Amino acid sequence: MSDEILKLSMLQLDALREIGNVGAGNSATALSQIINRKIDMTVPKIAILPLGEVPDVVGGPDAMVAGVYLRVFGPAPSSILFLLPRDSAFYLVDMLMGREQGHTTSLNSMDESALMEIGNILAGAYLNALSHFTSLTLLPSIPALAMDMAGAILSVILIQLGQMGDHALVIETEFTTESDGVKGHFFLIPDPGSLNTILAAIGVKE
Amino acid sequence: MSELIKVGMADYKVGSNPSSLISYGLGSCVGIALYDTAAKIGGLAHIMLPDSTQARSAENPAKFANTALPLMLDEMIKLGAAKKRILAKIAGGAQMFTFANATDVMRVGERNTEAVRILLKKMDIKIIADDTGGNYGRTVVLHLDTGIYLIKTIAKGEKEL
Fold first, then answer.
1. Which of B143, B140, B86, B57 is nearest to A151 (CA)?
2. Contact B63/A166, CB-based, under 8 Å?
3. Which residues of B are catalytic?
4. CATH number of the domain encompassing residue A38
5. Which residues form the CheC-like protein domain (chain A) (predicted)?
6. Per-residue CA distances from A93 to A35, A96, A118, B80 (Å)
7. CA distance A165 to chain B (A)
8. CB contact under 8 A, B9 and A55
9. How many CB atoms lie within 10 A of CB A130?
10. 3-state secondary structure of A114
11. For the purposes of burial, counting CB atoms within 10 Å of the CB of B142, is it exposed (0-12), middle (13-18) or buried (19 or more)?
12. Between A10-35 and A194-201, two packed helices, what is the crossing angle to 10 degrees?
């Protein structure tokens, strides 16, 4: 088996989960302050999945989602993807733009900017924690947005991983607002090779 | 009873009339449909990458165009298809996210499509229809009774190739 991620020890996986936890905690706090709602988050799931199964995490390859994608630059290049089911994206946009719930049924360019800005803030908060933890300087690119089938959006990341192996290490957190059930999935997917850099930086490389 | 056969990402399937082959949510991947009209036998490959020789891990041959297509062709021939009658239709190869300074990593859809065209030419299989590029996802269905390759999108409706 050539996939390096299949060789990770329990200790290494725990360390990665802890990083995900702190990063996502930061992001959830930021999101909560923006929309002025209490946000619950799940304990990050660390999953090592065959590439083809990753879209099932968000409801299958043909589920309609909004995705905000950012590249992470620095010593551990990675991809960040914030995925929301379509209804949650509309709900969030209504909240951000101060409109009545259920008003948005398609996104105009202001709505798109608002969602990208949310992705930006979440990624910034997450990377801040990750940088602090690892002493690596990690910087996000500007965000890009797509509203489409989950499989199509995820393919961007999965193809990059596919060059190195047949599995993806997915660090995933689910956000839910307490009252109205806006859901979001936050993925951090390290590029091949970046994982070793991160593990070395937190002192759990073998 | 016509069966709907699912083709996952980095996978290929073959079948015969009256089944249909379907693959959901193609983004930068390419869906290659091969079809023999006379025998009503077809195959659908959902490839992620153009070339196994440029990848560090090539354990799954269905992931790459250059290794998936010959295997799929063999299986179609075993079912009774004739190579000289087989024609291709291709779809996918989108660029889902647009950045101002698109790097090579981002243009993978375009590179996939290009590689598939070159490969099919090398294999002497003619592409009679295509729907590639753009910035949107596609779900594709190859109907093995007619050879119609149906492309479904969210924003751009449906299209028959």
1. B140
2. yes
3. 29
4. 3.40.1550.10
5. 12-46, 110-144
6. 10, 5, 10, 54
7. 5
8. yes
9. 24
10. helix
11. buried
12. 90
Chain B segment 124-143 residues within 8 A of A by beta carbon are 135-139
Cis ω before B18 (30° cut-off from 0): yes
Q: Is B94 on the interface with A (CB under 8 A)?
A: yes
> Tokens standing for A50?
């065959």
The separation between CA B6 and the C-alpha centre of its own chain, rounded to angstroms, equals: 13
| ipTM given for this complex | 0.87
Number of domains comprising chain A: 1
> Which contiguous run of DSSP H or E holds residue A158?
helix A150-162
Q: Give me the amino acid identity at B106.
A: M
Secondary structure (H, E, C), chain B: CCCEEECCCCEEEEEECCCEEEEEEECCCEEEEEEECCCCEEEEEEECECCHHHCCCCCCHHHEHHHHHHHHHHHHHHHCCCHHHEEEEEEECCCCCCCCCCCCCCCHHHHHHHHHHHHHHHCCCEEEEEEECCCCCEEEEEECCCCCEEEECCCCCEEEC
A36 phi/psi in degrees, rounded to 5: 55, 45
Question: From chain A, which residues contact B within 8 Å (Cβ)?
Answer: 1-3, 51-52, 55, 60-62, 64, 67, 69, 141-142, 144-156, 158-160, 162-166, 192
Whole-model pTM over 0.80: yes
Token representation of residue A192: 């091949």
> Which tens digits make up the pLDDT trace of B95-136?
998 765 556 556 889 999 999 999 999 999 999 999 999 999
Structure tokens given for A71: 């590249």
Instruction: Quick: pLDDT tens for B65-86.
Output: 999 999 999 999 999 999 999 9
